[in-house]
Amino acid sequence: MTPSPLRSAMTVIAHSVREGVRRRVFLAVLVLTAGFLALYGLGAHFVFRDVGNFAGGEANILDDKAFAGATIFGLAMFAILFLGAVLSVFLTLGAVRGDAESGLLQPLVVRPIGRTTMLMARFAGAAALAATYVVLVYLAAWAITRATGGWSPDHLIGPALGLALAVAIIAAISLLLSVLLPATAQGIVVFMVFGAGLTAGLLAQIGNAIDSDSLHTIGRVASWALPFEGLYAAGLHALISGTSGLTGVVLQLGPFGGSEAAGPGLIAWAFAYMLGVLAIAAFAFSRRDL
Amino acid sequence: MTEPPVLAVSGLHKSYRGQEALAGVDLEIRAGELVGLLGPNGAGKSTLTKIACGLVRPSGGGVEVLGRPAGSPPARAALGYLAELFRFPGWCSADELLRLHQRLAGAAGGAGEREELLDLVGLGEARDKRVEAMSKGMQQRLGIAQALVGAPRLLLLDEPTSALDPVGRRIVRGLLEELRRRGVAVLLNSHLLSEVELVCDRVAIIARGRLVEAGTPEQLAGPGGVEVETAAGVKVFAGAGREDAPRIVAELVGAGERVYRVEVRHSSLEEVYLKAVGGQTG
Predict the structure, then answer these.
(1) What pairs with residue B13 in β-bridges?
(2) Which of B79, B103, B106 sits opposite A2 (nearest CB)?
(3) Minimal C-alpha gap between B80 and chain A (Å)
(4) E strands, A196-272, in order
(5) B146: which chain A residues are within 8 Å (Cβ-Cβ)?
(6) Cα distance between residue A216 and residue A204, in whole Å
(7) Residues A107-155: pLDDT tens digits?
(8) What stretch of H or E contains A123?
(9) DSSP label at B125?
(10) Dihedral angle over CA of A219, A221, A223, A225, nearest 10
């Protein structure tokens, strides 16, 4: 009897999730996350306590809570994206070529489950874990920010979903690279791609601060070429989209410079991009001798 | 209507970047037949097996499993496979691993099938043992149990006894005989000629991507001469067979020799193999 593709996919997803949870790297990420949240809580406490000194007599013009909260929460989003990217990469590290070289893949692939179903299931398992992880850490960071400083972002859910989609895209890119490259090269290249996206975002920030159209354009193009960066920037923007006045201006000069609203175009493009990457991965996998 | 062969390989070619691994191989295996595939390293044995289970795409020719193209879902549903180099997730217990493969194979055997398979390979006591805590031999036996999930009609085993001790090998031999009794077709890739000779109905020898010899072990092991011990010493009549023995003895006795012992010799599978592959090694 040949099992249905859906049933096979669910089996592989469950297997991938269990494998991800049982891998030591997941434990390491959890320990790192606990450390990060503890440090974040400590940092947030002191930032909110001391921000009044920074605002000084201009407290009525500059909303010190919004300034401090948005700044540290924006930085927390960067850290969460980074940790989510690390998790995405490790959950898909060697998923095809690496596992084939070690002999893990063949016993599964010879089963009636098709290669495409198997690949999509591996992606779904990794993306679900990484996306759940970033959403939970994001919410934990928000709860800490709220508890220590009484500040909440202007939009809470949108940036969380944006981060979730961003790490899913990184998982898709990593999975594609796992078909083409050995595990070590895959890890290196995907982190280089991730770094390229962040660098482009930084260029956009600088472009915004010095009012350079060229840098701003580079940032925009990179956001579309590597939409995880665009989603992250859009998430940053959503945090303070309702913040105006001097506080909004000051924030734009900091880590929020260059961030733009996502808009339906970016979201649609991000999904199309992810599906396109997965389609290429499935095609390459179907042609690969194991 | 006659049932198609369980495995039908016809004119199979495979090249890796211009390097020919298989150069037109034909082979058929019927239900309940146990065929040993022999050949030096790099002869193309594993490539043939991998094409049969859809892991490698052929460059030419074709392979069918029960009349379905190799690699198609119905073909894969009909076979069990144990790779020469395989690994299972270390965190899985034996029972968990078999359950995973049951789900992927659509096998409805449940816990009963898992228990039977583990007993069959001598791992009945290790059902909850993690793979990472198993010896290489235990993992290999677990690999065989995994290949048998879902009662496949065709079993492709690539060096299934390479990590086994003599007791483990005996267990696998018994298992193969039991599978033959159940009508399962088996293609056994092995370097262990004695083992192949012991259990296989037919032997196919492959060298440089071509099938160079095929037949039953008896057919392949042709006459190796007649050895006669007389008062004058041991005489060997090379090329003579069983039918020649009475005439040889009569002639010797007629010539006044005293005959103490007569033995009809057969060339061993090893001799046939070495002759067929021309001393090639991988």
Answers:
(1) B23, B60
(2) B106
(3) 8
(4) none
(5) 107
(6) 5
(7) 999 999 889 999 999 999 999 999 999 999 999 999 999 999 888 888 8
(8) helix A115-149
(9) G
(10) -140
Q: Between residues B43 and B265, which one has the greater pLDDT?
A: B43
Q: CB distance from A290 to chain B under 8 Å?
A: yes
| Angle, CA of A150, A240 and A39, to the nearest 5° | 50
Structure tokens at A70: 């948005």
Q: Which has the higher per-residue pLDDT, B281 or A72?
A: A72
How many domains does one find in chain A?
1
Mean pLDDT of chain B: 89
Residue A1 to residue B89, Cβ atoms within 8 A: no
The CA distance from B133 to B88, in Å, is 12
- The strand pairing partners of B233, in sequence order, are B230
Residue B86 has pLDDT above 70, yes or no: yes
* CB spacing of B77 vs A1 below 8 angstroms: yes
Q: Which two tokens stand for residue A93?
A: 């590290």
Q: Which one-letter amino acid corresponds to residue B4?
A: P
Per the CB < 8 Å rule, is A104 touching B89?
A: yes
Q: Please determine, for the modelled complex, whether the ipTM score is greater than 0.90.
A: no
**Domain carrying residue A204:** 5-287
pTM to 2 decimals? Answer: 0.82
- B214 to chain A, closest Cα gap in Å: 27
Asked if B215 and B198 count as a contact pair (C-beta separation under 8 A), the reply is: no
Which residue type occupies B63?
Answer: V
Predicted confidence (pLDDT) at residue A55 exceeds the cutoff of 60: no
